[in-house]
């Protein structure tokens, strides 16, 4: 008997083939077999492998929601509004406090000895290069929002701060342009900086830890194992996973709808394309088709490739604006804004006794709920591509690097727009609709036809990368944590996302949907607080990498 | 004529592979060839194994069982991937060189319309390698 191959030793197999998961890790002892509750069928040449309860209940709830929202729009809309107002109005302190806890935990872990632990085991090797990894993190986590709000948010906060009142961050700086700008930039960076990325990092780190190091399925329920034990495989776990599907699917469909609106507005502005439902439907169909191509190509050749293209284009646009815009202002603004952020951070993140109630509830609490409702999707995707990184490396890359990029982006786009409005007196940039402000800002700079076109392309590709990575995530949750379920399931979810977006865009239910997506932020905040506990407990039982 | 036959296996669907495995054994005996069982798993825990290492051990056990049946020398090569379903073809094509196979034998399903958008792995591998590829249709 010849056990070993002639041309390779067992050691070589471990180093060449399997990137060793390896080394010391501490698997959780459970009898649960991944996929044991799954239904597998082969009908009409299509293989399916699904978690019966999670898949069917999520599918039924989603369909019911869409039908009810469209059929009973007038009756249901006030209910959503009431839920949303209650959550942000009465629980703003809870969202703000929770987000602070996430930031403190992440920063604490970077500096603690637990930061040395490696995701995937002490000897695990990363699956992606820094560039590929970072591109995917950024494209999944924030890309589209920066396009949408990069000009709008700094300008809006500037306006309210200058006018004063409870919609202004920290009650504003009435009549003081410099003070208003400082507050506007600090508030914007606050909403796009450490806190959102800490939210993503908590979800991603907990999922990665319990999947790669503890051997549990890549599913939200696994994070609850330290608390619920074997019960996570039953109904408590089903509910957690269904909630994740719900948040992910609705968050994505809302974004698809909003993105189509912005891209359509851009196309109308640039090429006089008819501003009609047909344009938006064609855009959503187009985005969905490219997304399907991307998920069939997979994470490496689809999502990673598109993310890299997108980051390269976004970087080109960013540096173009820096070069032809107010370069010196942006360069000094970057450091000034960082300083302003640091100065105002304690007040902005204070959960209690706020004087700027409208700002802290309507903006901050809304954003936190929104980021949190997105976190299962972004977090799970980040988790999936982060094997082989140490906790410290992971947190620095998921939190600090995107933070500095966000600061630079907001300084460049927001700072340029404020400069156009304040110094050059261009009011159009302030008065335009949310989906057009970016294009009006670019119009004041050279080559605006080209840059506007690139901006539209960026919006579209960012949506493709959201749609494809989102479909991968939903597929994995509804397949009981399997990442190797048959491909047609991914296609199914991509189509469902597109279909929901179209249905609600036509039926006018997009706002209701957005409200609903944000409302899932509340239960998820509780889930994330549990995840914080689980992360610490899980990391404490891991051997440290050398 | 053939010295090393590479046989891609999926430990999750062994029942579908059975007919192909016996044909592989017959051919290996005829040419006195080694059989290298190649398999790809997810980085994340799967229904077969909770870590890629455990998967590799199970593949080794499978290969030894096969060895007992046909008596030919066996070896294994396990790969892990972030997205095994999408990357399987590329990894298999790379594996042919890495294990120095001169024949690939793999089970494949009957042609179907869906192949236009999702081609069969066997067909894809055959079009991307210089070595001989023997596709064994599984009865439907």
Automatic annotation (TrEMBL), chain A:
Transmembrane segments: 54-72, 92-111, 132-151, 194-212, 233-258, 278-299, 311-335, 365-383, 395-418, 438-464, 491-510, 516-536
A Gene Ontology term for the protein's cellular component: plasma membrane
Keywords from the named record: Cell membrane, Membrane, Transmembrane, Transmembrane helix, Transport
Annotated stretches, region: Disordered: 1-22
InterPro entries listed in its UniProt record: BCCT_transptr
Top-level taxon of the source organism: Bacteria
Subcellular location: Cell membrane
Keyword set includes Membrane: yes
Sequence ranges of Polar residues compositional bias: 1-12
Topology class, membrane: Multi-pass membrane protein
MF-aspect GO terms: transmembrane transporter activity
Primary subcellular site in the record, as a coarse category: membrane
Family (UniProt): Belongs to the BCCT transporter (TC 2.A.15) family.
NCBIfam families registered for this protein in UniProt: bcct
Protein name: BCCT family transporter
Species for this entry: Vreelandella boliviensis LC1
Species lineage: Bacteria, Pseudomonadati, Pseudomonadota, Gammaproteobacteria, Oceanospirillales
UniProtKB/TrEMBL annotation, chain B:
Transmembrane region(s): none
Name of the protein this chain belongs to: Universal stress protein
Domain UspA: from-to ranges: 1-137
InterPro entries: Rossmann-like_a/b/a_fold, UspA
Domain of life: Bacteria
